[in-house]
Amino acid sequence: MAVQHYDDPIRRKVINDFEQRFGAPPSVVVRAPGRVNLIGEHTDYNEGFVLPMAIDRAIWIAARLRQDRSVMCHSLDFGQAVEFSLESVKGHVSDRRSGWHEYLRGIAWVMQQAGYHLRGWEGVVAGDIPVGAGLSSSAALEMATARVFAELSGLAWDPPTMARLGQRAENEWVGVNCGIMDQMISALGKAGHALLIDCRSLETEAVPLPPGTAVVVLDTATRRGLVGSAYNERRAQCEAAARLFRVPALRDVSVEMFALHADKLDELTRRRARHVVTENARTLQAVEAMRQGDAVALGRLMNESHASLRDDFEVSSKELNQMVQCALKEPACYGARMTGAGFGGCAVALVRAGDAYAFAASVAECYRSATGIAPNIYVCAATNGAEVILLS
Ligand code: GLA
User: Fold this and answer.
1) Ligand 1 proximity of 279 Cβ (cutoff 6 Å)
2) 95-151 pLDDT tens trace
3) Which atom of ligand 1 is nearest to the CA of 231?
4) In the predicted structure, residue 195 carries a pLDDT above the cut 60
5) What separation in Å is there between the alpha carbon of 153 and the centre of ligand 1?
6) pTM for this structure?
């Protein structure tokens, strides 16, 4: 059991609220982080490579066992409580309903489907990951919930297994067709590091951030309703391209193989596939750059990734392009790109650490004057994945 000491305002908030509500301290406190992806976008569902880092924004749950096999949890952010019996989430997928509590039900469902014997608990949940911004508050809630169940039910915590279950809960219970990246990084993140994830084998390697750099998340404060359908369409196009190459997934197509056979694909399929094939290659090059501590090379790859997502994969947006342009104007910036599914949400920039806050202020001003929209900007530290926190 990886038990960590930690100080965080949200940690104090869930513990204080728990004590007031239940008249005793919680027996377990967990945190599971959100994430930002440095490079390797729309590659996870092609069984390729991604390089995200877990950020210092997280979901926290304080909890204790109940004897009656039910779960009762208060959300301090939503001002609501959920209560359900573990029996009610066995066997079938109920009607899909949205809301934060469906992630708790979904995890209880999927863990029971996987054969785990779960015990009931009561607790309090809160977090500071902006919801809907593309920073994986859903995956964090899934991994935090799974971690509480594992801890209180006396189950071994195997992060890749739990990430797979979280993905399945999201796909089948919540009905969102995501890949494995978000759950993996929320489960396995490592402080000070990004994580290379092979989305086929689920092997991981922690890669240190280049010395003297900071990662800045640039939220455009725009959200697009069509993300889900566009995401599914891109997945289908990638699968069609893999079939044309007669491989299980685009992961199996090298840049050389692509160049040899690209003329056999129609124009749209060719551009979609070219993004995925080159993005996988860029992600592995980015790992190499990080191993060398080469921020300039990493930044260049991030810029190339953005151009590919914008022109070939077509998942960027006017605001994301504007944000990236504002970031690249700053001398402190090594590189910037849209991050996550796209169409709205966040960009990510790699910048000189000493200039990170000045960079944030200049980019905010540039973006606001170009679009009339006030962005949200977060200078982020890379943190550990889902963990149990000591109460002291
Ligand atoms: C979303 C999904 C991930 C991944 C990214 C794009 O964040 O949840 O699984 O596909 O989009 O890289």
Assistant:
1) no
2) 667 899 999 999 999 999 999 999 999 999 999 999 989 999 999 999 999 999 999
3) 11
4) yes
5) 30
6) 0.96
Any ligand 1 atom below 6 A from CB of 41: yes
Report the nearest-CA residue for atom 1 of ligand 1: 341
For residue 253, how far is its CA from the centre of ligand 1 (angstroms)? 20
> Which pLDDT score is estimated for 186?
98
Strands 70-75 and 80-85: antiparallel
Q: How far apart are CA 90 and CA 96, in angstroms?
A: 15
Q: Which residues are marked as active site?
A: 182
d(CA 359, CA 312): 29
**pLDDT tens digits along 279-335:** 999 999 999 999 999 999 999 999 999 999 999 999 999 999 999 999 999 999 999
Query: What does the DSSP assignment read for 24-52?
Result: S--SEEEEEEEEEESS--S-GGGT-EE-E
Query: Token pair of 111, please?
Result: 């863990």
β-pairing, 376-380 vs 213-219, is antiparallel
- Report the amino acid identity of residue 222: T
- Helix then strand then coil, in percent of the chain rounded to 5, is 45, 20, 30
Give 342 Cα–ligand 1 centroid separation in angstroms.
Answer: 9
Distance from the alpha carbon of residue 231 to the mean position of ligand 1, in angstroms: 9
| Average pLDDT over all residues of the chain | 95
What are 274's two structure tokens? 């070219």
| Probe residue for ligand 1, chosen from 174, 182, 183 as the CB with the greatest number of ligand atoms within 8 Å | 182
The two tokens of residue 30 are 């967990």
Q: Please indicate whether residue 340, judged by its CB atom, sits closer than 6 Å to ligand 1.
A: yes
3-state SS, residue 344:
coil
Query: What is the number of alpha carbons within 13 Å of residue 2 lying toward its C-beta?
Result: 16
Res. 158 pLDDT band, cuts 50 70 90? very high
Alpha carbon distance 383, 128 (integer Å) = 14
CA dihedral 316, 322, 328, 334 (to 10 degrees): -30
- Please identify, by atom number, the ligand 1 atom nearest to the C-alpha of residue 139: 8
182 in contact with ligand 1, CB cutoff 6 A: yes
H-helix or E-strand containing 235? helix 227-245
